[in-house]
Design a protein that fits this description.
heterodimer, A: six-stranded mixed β-sheet, 12 helices, B: mainly alpha, two-stranded antiparallel sheet, 10 helices, about 70% helix, globular
């Protein structure tokens, strides 16, 4: 089943800027999708369509195979949780607990259910102790977790995150990523993550979608996408560092075979060990 | 340029901190009304003295308390200085050369307005010094203030700090490129501050759009109160304390009206 699908999606801003052009995008249920693209590629505009914040100029957006219309926006927003890039845009209540309760209250749940959801969301994001803290007193990582908890409390089936690792130190970014993967594993959430962090993408993505100037230029599993090195560089992106290193070793030092380059440190380690073992045998 | 942190000094464990915010709010409002009705210039000073004592008792920051009084004092002092020349009928002297009359009633009411204002501001100052602002707003909500006003105040409070951070960042960005150095003229500095204010206005608008989107994305339709409020009963002990404060304030008005009787310029002069 497709979690989200777009058919010939076009979107033009009021000033005439064509942000999305005939976009056909799809993500399967339970899949982790990374959306990569340079600045101004249309990533945020696309994400805002998934939640019904923006409606297509032409074309269709389907959530769980239902078309997004103004008449079913409440349903869409319950199914698709959107986490914004800057958590300060999202955390507006006076305490973390109240902010997490915001979505369930809007969905009309009774107070007991709201409390239960808040408790569950805070536990799932491991910030139970922050329930009564004002958002302004939190660290960036804590704010990000609180923002995720606020969306999680609505129990969405699809979670869309706009640059969730932006402005975080590497350790916190890694923790947030682990948290998201855990949520994907435990709850079967479909994750759609827009990011610039090429090195992190192979760690979580089942599929990658590369955008440029409002169009999809490449879509597929990470190994296939990162094999298109020229195209990736043409759209102002780069290979993961580890892949780049292996590309250089292959081209300049002829050290490696022409099979696909590793994308992660784990894959690289395996390949290096194999290479050393093969050399020792000789 | 410093960050604005409105709740920096509200932490504490005194009985005044622990007193229910709704009681503190209603007691403060009634007390301010009572101060306004006082006609003897020295009576409001009693309230000022009590507030001052309570600040010391609650171990709140006296420095912040006095700092927060500075701006209102300067404004009220200006009004107090104007009054002797503009209000009254009994001329007691004239300003040499200018022949500007000085009225006895004007002097009296100038001082009265000053003591009234300074005492009323002291009461509010004490309230926000020992009560988190968000709790005060919860109390407004409990007193049935319209949700749209409370929500707006809470959002304003939430984003004042962020706007302050942004303005500080912009100021530092200007300062790092000598925008506020000694060699820069006064008018150029003013223009730089103007640029910060303008940019801040635009950013505040952009931020409001983003926050609005974040709210809509979580199902906000404008129908509900933004924030859930747990309905707690008023503690009896706190209610009793509140009643005592209100009774004391009202009795001061009664003393002013019936015991001291009317306005006595003679007491002042």
């Amino acid at each position: 089943m497709k979690s989200i699908e777009t058919n010939n999606l076009c979107y033009t801003y009021h000033d005439g800027t064509k942000a999305l052009a005939n976009m056909n995008f799809s993500v399967e249920k339970g899949e982790n999708m990374a959306i990569l693209g340079p600045n101004g590629a249309g990533k945020s505009t696309l994400l805002h369509h998934f939640n019904g914040l923006l409606m297509p100029t032409s074309g269709k957006v389907l959530v769980l195979e239902k078309e997004v219309k103004t008449s079913n926006l409440d349903w869409v927003r319950q199914k698709v949780g959107l986490v914004f890039q800057d958590p300060d845009d999202q955390l507006f209540a006076r305490t973390v607990g109240q902010d997490v309760a915001f979505g369930p209250v809007n969905l009309g749940f009774p107070p007991d259910e709201v409390k239960a959801r808040v408790k569950w969301a805070l536990e799932a994001t491991e910030i139970t102790e922050l329930e009564n803290k004002p958002p302004q007193n939190l660290s960036s990582g804590q704010k990000k977790r609180a923002a995720i908890a606020g969306v999680l409390a609505m129990k969405p089936e699809i979670m869309v995150l706009d640059e969730p690792m932006a402005n975080l130190d590497p350790r916190t970014a890694s923790k947030i990523l682990k948290l998201l993967l855990q949520l994907n594993k435990d709850l079967g959430l479909t994750l759609i993550i827009a990011t610039h962090d090429v090195d992190l993408v192979p760690l979580f993505a089942d599929k990658i979608c590369i955008l440029n100037r409002g169009q999809i230029v490449l879509q597929g599993p990470p190994q296939e996408v990162f094999a298109e090195t020229e195209l990736i560089r043409k759209v102002d992106l780069r290979l993961p560092r580890i892949t780049h290193l292996f590309e250089i070793l292959s081209k300049r030092n002829q050290l490696l075979t022409d099979k696909q380059f590793p994308l992660t440190i784990g894959e690289a380690r395996k390949e290096i060990v194999e290479l050393l073992e093969a050399n020792n045998k000789h | 340029m410093e960050y604005v942190n409105l709740e920096e000094y509200t932490e504490g464990h005194s009985a005044l901190h622990r007193l229910d915010a709704r009681i503190k709010l209603i007691a403060a409002i009634v007390t301010i009304f009572c101060i306004v009705f006082l006609t003897h210039w020295y009576l409001p000073l009693l309230f000022f003295g009590v507030c001052f004592g309570l600040v010391i008792y609650s171990r709140a920051s006296l420095k912040v308390y006095l700092k927060r009084l500075l701006i209102p004092i300067s404004l009220i002092a200006f009004i107090g200085v104007i009054m002797p020349f503009t209000y009254g009928s009994t001329i007691i002297a004239r300003v040499p050369y200018l022949t500007l009359p000085i009225y006895s009633q004007g002097i009296y009411f100038g001082v009265l307005v000053f003591t009234r204002c300074i005492s009323a501001v002291s009461v509010l100052n004490l309230l926000i010094l020992v009560t988190p602002i968000t709790t005060v707003m919860d109390s407004f909500s409990w007193f049935r203030m319209p949700a749209v006003i409370v929500d707006t105040m809470l959002l304003m409070f939430r984003y004042i700090g962020i706007l302050s951070e942004e303005s500080t960042r912009m100021y530092r960005a200007q300062a790092s490129r000598c925008g506020h150095s000694k060699s820069v003229g006064y008018f150029k500095k003013l223009a730089n501050y103007g640029n910060i204010a303008g940019a801040l206005l635009v950013r505040a608008f952009e931020r409001s759009v983003k926050v609005g989107n974040a709210m809509i994305s979580r199902g906000y339709t404008g129908k509900y109160n933004l924030f859930t409020l747990e309905k707690k009963e008023l503690p009896k002990k706190d209610t009793f304390v509140g009643a005592l404060i209100i009774a004391a304030s009202i009795s001061m008005v009664l003393v002013d009206a019936f015991v001291l009787r009317g306005v006595h310029y003679g007491i002042f002069f």
